[in-house]
Amino acid sequence: MTAHPGEKTNPADGVEPSGGDGQVPAAPGSGASPTRRGSRVVVLGGGPGGYEAALVARQLDAEVTLIERNGIGGAAVLTDVVPSKSLIASANMVAKTEVAEWMGISRGQPQSGLEVDLARLNDQVLTLAHQQSADIRANLERAGIEVVDGEGRLLAPDRVAVTTPGREREFPAEVVLLATGASPRVLPTAVPDGERILTWTQLYRLRELPERLIVVGSGVTGAEFANAYGALGCDVVLVSSRDRVLPGEDGDAAELIEGAFRRRGMEVLSRSRAAAVERRGEGVVVTLEDGREVEGSHCLVAVGGVPNTAGLGLEEAGVALAPSGHITVDRVSRTTVRGVYAAGDVTGVLPLASVAATQGRIAMWHALGDAVAPLDVSKVPATVFTSPEIATVGVSAADAEAHDARVRVVPLSRNPRAKMMGIEEGFIKVVARQGSGSVLGGVVVSPRASELIHVLTLAVTTRCTVDELATTMTIYPSLSGSIAEAARLLHMPTFGDG
């Protein structure tokens, strides 16, 4: 994830990076130390934050032990990012057939609709996830990293205990990285049973497509699964406590997605907070706070995640936690204890697999004395894998005025490549500073927006100007041409009025 990867931090949910600015006071004497060949590094957690950190530490000649209790790759590979995006990719294949038919390509007569074998689809999704996990494990072992299957906890800042089947072991450590991730939040009035009331990690147990799926939660996780199951042919009801779906996203993008949901037949219940979910007969009933009841065959509860910090020995070791329960870290992943670092969803900085991996690498570069640049969350790209996708980076349009910036939007409907692909909705939005024209942020709403956003991420990271972006040639026809068009609209002429 992780709390589901792709899920952005929403300050309203009480999950802020280390007090809001991503920094905490450094532990006394906790500056980077010179590289020491043979330094002993112990990593707790085998997700992106953990395994990427382990590889960097090994590259810097450390002796590395990685401890994972549920499988290498962690939740990101086994229950979140890899399986969920595989499911979404399959759902998108169904949607593509509609475009093909619009272009005159059909299966012949008599024409029949596609049938979804959910059992086979879920089996294949989980097979891919386990293959990826095995590949990561093999890569770690090739690098000379000791992989231990077990549950670890801090005995002291320089000692880690690991419980494995049949015995307990202890590992000395000069550097410890905590990368234990997060788990789905469970509401006391909506306890998952793994059959009808489900978390996103349990959806892959389903053998048949739900007749009517109620999704509680309209954040990234809820919206992505509602979109996917709707595309697979399921009747979907999305329960949102906010005024609109995806409240943490660009307003125009969220409005477009909600409109697309409704046009495809999804029922969206805005400003409708769920009070309880219960089994009733062969289905479920979601009771809303205003007393209304929504009936369905299954319910997905997607209301965020909680950090996996219980049983790690953090308080005893002096590792500070935020009020939300996340481990407090600074921009180089240090906790409040010398030699102890943390990365990923357990820190609450940004619950994205890419951020977890970056935090893990930064932690090892810093701890082992290599060159390091602190994490800059203002340059982190993120994607919501709906249809179309929403990808964002940098300063939002809502914050443009505060940054003395201008915004321009180009609809994809006028892009020639989009017309060829049957894309009727979507846009490119670019945010640039007045005067200098430097690119501060952007939004892409489009199929494969997760790929297109890289151009704007590079522009934000390198402080590229809109003129540089506009004069860099693009392929014709291409969706990226609309990025250059938006940049051209932000050009500030240098000639006078006369």
From TrEMBL:
Binding site for FAD: K85, G152, D345
Binding site for NAD(+): G217, S218, G219, V220, T221, G222, A223, E224, G304
Region annotated Disordered, chain positions: 1-40
Record has Nucleotide-binding as a keyword: yes
SUPFAM superfamilies per record: FAD/NAD(P)-binding domain, FAD/NAD-linked reductases, dimerisation (C-terminal) domain
The UniProt record lists the keyword Nucleotide-binding: yes
Keyword annotations from UniProtKB, A to Z: FAD, Flavoprotein, NAD, Nucleotide-binding, Oxidoreductase
Cofactor dependence: FAD
An MF annotation (GO) of this entry: NAD(P)H dehydrogenase (quinone) activity
InterPro entries: FAD/NAD-bd_sf, FAD/NAD-binding_dom, FAD/NAD-linked_Rdtase_dimer_sf, Pyr_nuc-diS_OxRdtase, Pyr_nucl-diS_OxRdtase_dimer
Taxonomic superkingdom: Bacteria
Gene3D superfamilies in the cross-refs: 3.30.390.30, FAD/NAD(P)-binding domain
Occurrences of domain FAD/NAD(P)-binding (ranges): 40-360
Cofactor details (free text): Binds 1 FAD per subunit.
A Pfam family that the UniProt record links to this protein: Pyr_redox_2
Residues annotated as domain Pyridine nucleotide-disulphide oxidoreductase dimerisation: 380-487
PANTHER family: MERCURIC REDUCTASE, NAD(P)H DEHYDROGENASE (QUINONE)
Annotated family: Belongs to the class-I pyridine nucleotide-disulfide oxidoreductase family.
Designated name of the protein: Dihydrolipoamide dehydrogenase
Organism expressing this protein natively: Serinibacter salmoneus
